[in-house]
Amino acid sequence: MDPLTISFDRTAPREFLEHVDDFVRDSKTILDAWDMYSDEHTDLDGWPHDDHAYGLRKSQRDADNAEAFENIRAGTRHLLATADAQLQSLPADAVQNRWGYQLGVLHSALDRLDALHEQWLRTRDSLPTDAGPGTPVFDDALAEHHAESWSYLDDWATHAHALGDINSAVLHTSSPLTPPPTAVPATGRTTSVRR
């Protein structure tokens, strides 16, 4: 891992965390809309009334979620490295047990998303020269890429709030590098103590 990606600031950049919050919110909106569509367009056993329309709507869900993730992709490695460092610096009583697990899920999902992105770039480059966006060959390949990415994007939507939770814990915990406050005797006055 490139050590330059780790923030030596005790807090993650607020702007990155706000973008993560936006992604989580957008992803929830996308999933809620999908759940509503799915409930209305499937029978009691969960089978779609119209396979083609259902498949198109599912592809749109996947594409929308992938687009929402692109707004945070560039900062994800930095945020994870920062959260890892923050988690190590927190006192044990300030750490939630789930945070280590959640960071592990986010790391694994991001590794898979990066691998799938590289695979998509190779697939896109191997398409015929006349196969651009809007052509069935291109659109089908992109839809397949989005479908493969869906579960890893869902992992990010489910667990990314841990990045903000860890950052908040750091903000509310005194730095281990900061010496504890010491009592300074008052000068010029003495007070008597009642017994």
Description:
The protein is an all-alpha fold and 195 residues long. Helix content is 66%, strand content 0%. Helix 1 runs antiparallel to helix 2 and helix 3 packs across helix 6. The N terminus and C terminus are likely disordered.
Determine the structural class based on helices, strands and strand pairing: mainly alpha
Shape: globular
- Strand count: 0
> Compute the gyration radius: what is it?
24 Å
Task: Give the ordered list of helices and strands.
Answer: HHHHHH
Proportion of residues in β-strands: under 5%
- Report the span from N to C terminus: 63 Å
Share of helical residues: 55-70%
Average of pLDDT: 86
Low-confidence stretches: 1-8, 177-195
Major sheet characteristics: none
Q: Count of helical segments?
A: 6
Compile the SSE list and pairings:
Layout: H1 14-40, H2 51-70, H3 73-89, H4 98-126, H5 136-159, H6 161-171
Which terms would index this structure?
disordered C terminus, 195 residues, 6 helices, mainly alpha
Overview in brief:
The protein is mainly α and 195 residues long. It is built from six helices and no strands.
